[in-house]
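Section handout 9: paired folding examples.
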Amino acid sequence: MKERILIFLLLFSFTFSVSAQTEGARKSAEARLIENFGTYNCEDIKSRLIILHLALSEEPKSKGIVIVYEGKYAKYVDARNGKSTIKYILPSVGESIFRTREMQDILVFFKFPMENFLFIDGGFRENFEVELWVVPNDAKMPKPTPTLETMKYRKGAPMKTVCGGS
């Protein structure tokens, strides 16, 4: 009788353990938004991409998804009283492509494996925005969530930044 009870308890604990592990695996198979941000400086974007890379290194079979939304850019303008104010300006045609290439250059500079990253054109939002996702191998890809159907553009070339990898 004691043996039967012991076997029952062992089977019950094994079943419970397998069920808990399966549930944990399901939870880890979801895409996770690491963070989203808008206007940035070069050091800021470098640190955010490093954080994404570190998150990927904790989950080796995952992909880093970078969704880039076209939108207005914040520009700091010095006022006469010495205080900076933010002015939003329209993007020029191809501005989000230019920003995407900057981020890709940073990844190459740091020798992060490019096959671990996927860049997606997210469409249009009121302001420029980037989302950084970690997506496990068996998880659904995040879908872009644009908030505008069209974008007004300014004339001229994309705003120059001194970013790149270095």
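Moving on to protein 2 of 2.
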Amino acid sequence: MTMPGVVACAAYADGRRIRDVPLEDVSEVLREPGPFVWIELYEPSEEVLRVIQEEFSLHDLAIEDAHRAHQRPKLERYDDALFVVLHTVHVTADEEVEFGETHLFVGARYVVSVHHGPAVPYAQVRARCEATPHLLSKGPGYVLYSLTDFIVDQYFGAVDLFDSRLEKLEEQIFRDGVSRGTTERIYDLKRELLRLKHAVAPLIDVTNRLMRSDFEMIPAAAHPYFRDIYDHVIRINETVDMLRELLTGALEANLSLISVGQNEAMKRLAGWAAIIAVPTMIAGIYGMNFKFMPELEWRWSYPVVITVMVTSCAYLYRRFKRAGWL
């Protein structure tokens, strides 16, 4: 009977799948010379993890981390086992980026993967490994490479999506003008890029150690494969840094355009205020109702005053128009 949270549990020998194994019978398989076990778990219960711990004598701290999740990407060694934490990235059909977490226990004759949160099913990784028995025969080290390589490759899709979103934001900024919604989208993209940066940056150290360290569960022949992953991680990290710099530039450009727009509005308001001030001043003088006023008894005083107001306003309007204020 399959225990809750157990996706797959199979034994492999000479690069080929021998049979599926119940979780509680793993120790019997390991008594046989040669085969290794590959177990895949998805958000397992504490009970399942305790069974795993008993079968492979795993460290309490590693089991605790695997159960609680929310760990920083890292590589640790407990006695004769490696414990690797990787953050996963998944781009949905709706072009949304979801983050998850995968913990890997790797020993000389076993690989246990524990997945938390959204992730692409790892069945295709298993199928790809089983399709290359000459590589799968390298043992758990090659399985560790395959899972790590698959997880890192998912980052490229997220980077491409963020790059596309940045291009659209730049078009909106310089073509459609500025808006509060554009600023909010810039900050949302910066937040998602920061999460991706926190997932990618620690992988540089993890993959570098896997590429250079002499772990007995990783044969020397597998080091070039991890070097390839290391190169991918470096490229992704550099691309994320570039996108963050471009996004910062886009935010600054957006804020600059907002400032320019505000200055243009202030110039228009100042221009119209100056134009309105002239008739307001003249009308204010004649509205004081003193007994002795300029041209008060003159027949043409009213038309002349109106003409002066209109002429002055027209002159100021023309000068402000030429200056680009209106």
